[in-house]
Amino acid sequence: MDLCVTIKGVSFLLQTGLGILGNSVVLLAYSHIICTEPKLLPVDMILCHLAFANLILLLTRCVPQTMTVFGLKDLLNDPGCKVVIYAYRIGRALSVCITCMLSVFQAVTIAPAGPFLSRLKPALSSLVVPTFAGLWLLNMAVCIAAPFFSMAPRNGTILPFTLNLGFCHVDFRDNLSYVINGVAVSVRDFAFVALMVGSSGYILLLLHRHSRQVRVIRRSHGNGAETRAAKTVLTLVILYVVFFGIDNVIWIYMLTVSKVSPVVADMRVFFSSCYASLSPYFIISSNKKVKGKIVCAAEQDQPSVETQESNDK
Question: First-to-last CA distance in the chain?
Fold first, then answer.
């Protein structure tokens, strides 16, 4: 195994391992919070769903990608490729949509109450689940073409307009199908990113307007938590936009060529998965509920370890 393959394999392995660990910890923490608290805030419900979407993305894309890099072949047959690629497309789409949803909901939460918002804010909690359902249905419909073009790798020359993912091939058969699929995915992504950036800009504007009233905000009930949550949302949005930009520069390049180099495809996979791997650690570091559950679990394990050591002695 040459040096380049080793570096690529270790990079994917670290990204996959850290991402699965981080998102699993966030999901376990929220599972415990759900069992101990009567009701989750809308932001917490969205963050929990974001971790679930990121976990789907990592399991269906990065895990087989890592196995392929290390030389494992024939991982999936045709039906397996169709299921995995479809699940990956949905997970990736949900990641951007839920991050956008998080930004919009947080902007509404901290916005000054007006005639419309005064009626909307109390209903936010009841709108979370229907919004989740709508996003799932939307992305299942947009990604429906993926299973029809996905297949297990074939021996021989890779045909034009075929994405070689290593463990699967996505064969669009002709330039029209290739471009239509790319445009549909890009339009959806850019629409949600534009809404995400707009709502995040509004959050920044509100935080700037209230910067002179920080002491008052901290003393008022709930506003400090809302401000911290807004800063967490802004961090996640900036993180997503950075990697989204890199991902789409590579994607636009891929749309302009008939045969995509495996190196280029691997670069796109790596950068498009960075958000899913890094975002849970921003959630853990900035969310007091999640951090508190992790610290509590660690403290509960500590006495048992000390007791075991004393018994061994």
Answer: 46
- Give CA–CA dist 91/139, Å, rounded: 9
Mean pLDDT of all residues in 20-41: 88
In this prediction, residues 102-107 reach a mean pLDDT of 89
Choice among 20-24, 206-210, 299-303 with the minimum mean pLDDT: 299-303
3-state secondary structure of 171: strand
pTM to 2 decimals?
A: 0.86
Residue 171: beta bridge partners? 162
Question: 301: Cβ–Cβ under 8 A, 6 or more apart, which residues?
Answer: none
Number of independent structural domains in the chain: 1
Dist CA 199 CA 187 (whole Å): 18
Gyration radius (Cα) of the chain, Å:
22
> What sign for the dihedral angle of Cα 43, 292, 273, 52?
negative
- 280 lies in some domain: yes
Is residue 31 in some structural domain? yes
pLDDT at residue 249 above 50?
yes
297 lies in some domain: no
Describe the crossing of helices 175-209 and 78-110 by its angle, rounded to 10 degrees: 20
Asked if pLDDT for residue 220 goes beyond 50, the answer is no
What is the percent of the chain where pLDDT is above 90? Answer: 26
Domain CATH for 102: 1.20.1070.10
Residue pointed to by tokens 């890199």: 246
Supply the range of the domain harboring residue 274: 3-292
Return the structure tokens found at 161.
């307009």
**Separation CA 88–CA 184 (nearest Å):** 16
In a domain, 239, yes or no: yes
